[in-house]
Design brief:
14 helices; alpha/beta; 44% helix; 8-stranded mixed sheet
């Protein structure tokens, strides 16, 4: 998401149609949900929000150890390219030697065998299902009825989970859509984009990661220090927190007493910010706890609200001193970031329906990343 946003800014593109294919689909879904003001429309082809339970015959996606060993030996060879085309890429073009030669060259130029293996393993952790209800931009889903990689049934399910999404089913088995007769596909895209090109974005609802922090034992410290001493300490604490928010692109929404409520456009950045805050106030003699959740937020009378905000606050209330606690939604969305967690079991969050799986961030893994 950050790469797409950075390229748009460098190119001077304020709003764009985002086209997500294969494992680029989940990223495009997240972008559209998080940045509705930057997204004219969302187009998806041959993809799925949840790779953790994706049923596919493609061994690359399944990350089978035997196949990954084969990748290590054969990546980018003609034999490998033929196998990919015949098994899932474009089975009807299995005898196209020109396509096989092109694909072999493309794979060699695109990645080393080690990078391809790492990508395959990371793909199996992708799950952005939680983001689908937060997509409120016009969405077109294109699907080949014979796509082996992403069966049509799954594409229909994905379409049904995005409000107002439109599904167009096209004949053929090519996951590599550019090798097929693509005139109909281009016509559908042109018609769709033309319909929504000038439509204004819905800026009242968006996907965000909310973070709540507060000082542990604040009442006791305030009593021990007195009003003046406590005021000075809180000011020093606030300065540290605001410094980290600026570093990790967090937006301060509210400050109540010794606590902060902030939002982020990326869950990994939110985790790293919370970890930096808990570590950065130690020399002040303070312990801070933090809670995070990712969900759909609403702007109501200029204030950020919604059930996601209530969940984030309740998660923070469950955290221990110096701990960064996250919901299962946050954990799922940062797959592949290198951030690791310890399970904290299932909790009932006051006023929130259902039970929630909570996870504590391993601070060492969070500090290993960059903003």
């Amino acid at each position: 998401m950050d790469d797409v946003r950075a390229v748009m800014e460098a190119a001077g593109s304020e709003r764009a149609v985002v086209f997500g294919v294969s494992e680029g689909g989940p990223m495009a879904m997240l972008f559209a949900a998080t940045y509705p003001e930057r997204t004219v429309a969302l187009i998806l082809f041959g993809t799925d929000p949840d790779y953790t339970s994706l049923q596919t015959d493609d061994p690359f996606v399944a990350a089978d150890d035997e196949y990954l060993a084969y990748i290590d030996r054969q990546w980018g060879t003609i034999e490998h390219a033929r196998k990919e085309i015949a098994s899932w890429g474009a089975p009807s073009r299995a005898d196209d030697e020109r396509l096989a030669a092109w694909l072999a060259s493309y794979l060699r130029r695109a990645a080393s065998p080690g990078a391809a293996i790492a990508l395959s393993r990371m793909n199996r952790q992708i799950d952005v299902s939680h983001a689908l209800p937060a997509i409120h931009v016009p969405t077109l889903v294109l699907a080949k009825t014979g796509d082996v990689e992403f069966p049509i049934e799954g594409m229909r399910e994905t379409t049904a989970k995005i409000a107002g999404a439109r599904l167009v089913e096209l004949p053929g088995d090519e996951h590599f859509f550019w090798v097929a007769d693509h005139e109909q596909m281009l016509e559908e895209i042109e018609r769709f984009v033309g319909e929504f090109r000038d439509q204004e974005a819905d800026l009242e609802r968006f996907l965000a990661t909310v973070m709540f922090t507060d000082i542990v034992g604040s009442t006791e410290k305030a009593t021990a220090l007195g009003d003046r001493g406590w005021k000075d300490l809180v000011e020093a604490h606030h300065a540290r927190v605001r410094g980290q928010l600026a570093r990790f692109r967090g937006v301060e929404i509210d400050t109540a007493g010794d606590g902060f409520f902030a939002t982020f456009d990326g869950p990994a950045r939110a985790i790293r910010c919370a970890t930096a805050i808990t570590a950065g106030v130690g020399d002040l003699g303070l312990e801070v706890r933090a809670g995070l959740h990712t969900g759909e937020c609403e702007v109501l009378e200029g204030k950020v609200g919604g059930i996601a905000v209530h969940i984030g606050a309740r998660v923070a209330a469950q955290a221990g001193p110096g701990e960064v606690l996250v919901s299962g939604t946050v954990r799922d969305l940062v797959a592949g970031s290198g951030i690791t967690f310890e399970e904290r079991g299932v909790a009932d969050l006051r006023g929130v329906p259902g039970t929630w799986h909570l996870y504590a961030v391993d601070p060492r893994s969070a500090r290993a990343g960059v903003a």
